[in-house]
Amino acid sequence: MKFKIAIIGTGKVAWHFSTSLENAGHIITEVYGRDLAKARRLTSQLYDTDAQDHLDFTESAAEIFIVAVADDAISEVADAVLLPENSILVHTSGTVPLEVLGYSSAEHTGVVYPLQSFSLHRTVTWEEVPILLEAEDPDTLSKLKKLVKTLSAQHYVVRSKDRNAVHVAAVFASNFTNHMIRIAEEIMLRQGLDFEMIKPLIIEQISKCLELGPKAAQTGPASREDMETLENHHLFLQYNDQLAEIYRLISQDIIDSQ
């Protein structure tokens, strides 16, 4: 089943969704961007799509409208957008509840949240991306399932409060993990050491975590309650009080979770 789709937004999620959905055979009718130049840059990558800088879609042929904007802009867009009859309005956020779309002019609303981190210049393998779906009625949900199946993506039907929990867990697993690796890089560089030295350890730890489970894969001085080493590390980090406190808090949490 192929759909006519309009994309509202010009960020990373909008880029990946629009190009991938078109490649899957759907028609991208319009792309909206507050900055028309950005909308045009996106439509230049598509076959026959109009760029616009207004939210009046009343004459659009699209049946599904995908809001792919920053979380704090979704409510504003939903309130302002003008849609044709019988249209479906969905957002792509992991943390914003479905109900924020309830005051829009859409007759049907839903959520299509891809559980992945997106970068403009990295190709997305959709077969490996879980997509969390939610809708207010069975017919809309059925259409959204058909839509994501064309991307060969796994999908899960998840309510707003549970999707928020998934998003929090994802921040810990992805964003916080990345930040910890960034801190490790800064420590190495501060000592004049090559960060490449520590990369095999990072790769092995993540692989082991996913294979054995995070509890079984936990190692290090905190997991064995090596207080002497913990104190030594804490003293080393005194050049940065915030890093020293992060180290202390995480180490204590590891000890407490044993």
Detailed description of the structure:
By secondary structure, this protein is α/β, with parallel strands linked by helices. The chain has a domain at 4-158: 3-Layer(aba) Sandwich (Rossmann fold). Helix content is 44%, strand content 14%. It has nine helices and eight strands. It has helices spanning 12-23, 36-43, 74-80, 138-149, 160-190, 199-212, 214-217, 227-236, 241-256; strands at 4-8, 27-32, 50-52, 64-67, 88-91, 108-114, 131-135, 155-157. An eight-stranded mixed sheet has the order 3-2-1-4-5-6-7-8, sandwiched between helices. Helix 2 links the parallel strand 2 (27-32) and strand 3 (50-52). Helix 8 runs antiparallel to helix 9. The longest helix is centred in the last third of the chain and has 31 residues, at 160-190. 29% of the residues are buried. The mean pLDDT is 96. It comes from Negadavirga shengliensis. Residues 2-102 form the Putative oxidoreductase/dehydrogenase Rossmann-like domain. Residues 129-253 form the DUF2520 domain. InterPro entries: 6-PGluconate_DH-like_C_sf, DUF2520, NAD(P)-bd_dom_sf, OxRdtase/DH_put_Rossmann_dom, TM1727-like_C_sf. This is Rossmann-like and DUF2520 domain-containing protein.
